[in-house]
Specification:
The protein has 130 residues and is mainly α. It has one domain. The chain contains seven helices and no strands. The longest helix has 17 residues. It comes from Hymenobacter frigidus. Pfam families: DUF4259 (PF14078).
């Protein structure tokens, strides 16, 4: 059985993404995941989970990490340098908004009991990306 929780690092897809990012902690890895969240009108749950993890990493790189940010990811964040930090935040916000607007992940949460909690986490992430 996989991990599943309302926070952005509380699922197996995000955990796998973190491992991939740690192998190559560069902005292009994050940008690819963020851009995938709005390439199609409908966002797959795995694509959305990866994009939300990437958005959390962008926020953390701006000194605005969530309280449940994976501690083993901090060294990768310390070495991360954005060409344009404002552009990275804008891209991350766009991805989160696309996921909230229409995505498989949003629909899955909407069907469950923790939808309000999940949505609150995303709204808080958007605030940290300002």
């Amino acid at each position: 059985m996989g991990a599943w929780g309302h926070r952005n690092f509380d699922n197996d897809t995000a955990a796998d993404y973190v491992a991939t990012f740690q192998e190559n902690p560069v902005e292009s890895t994050l940008f690819e995941s963020l851009e995938a969240a709005f390439e199609d009108e409908y966002v797959d749950a795995d694509v959305a989970s990866e994009a939300l993890a990437a958005a959390e990493i962008v926020a953390a790189a701006q000194q605005k990490a969530t309280s449940d940010f994976p501690q083993d990811l901090l060294p990768s964040i310390a070495s991360l340098h954005f060409t344009n930090p404002e552009s990275a935040k804008k891209l991350a916000r766009r991805a989160v908004k696309a996921i909230l607007k229409e995505s498989e992940l949003q629909e899955l949460w909407e069907e469950g009991d923790d939808y309000k909690s999940w949505r609150a986490v995303q709204r808080e992430l958007l605030e940290r990306l300002t």
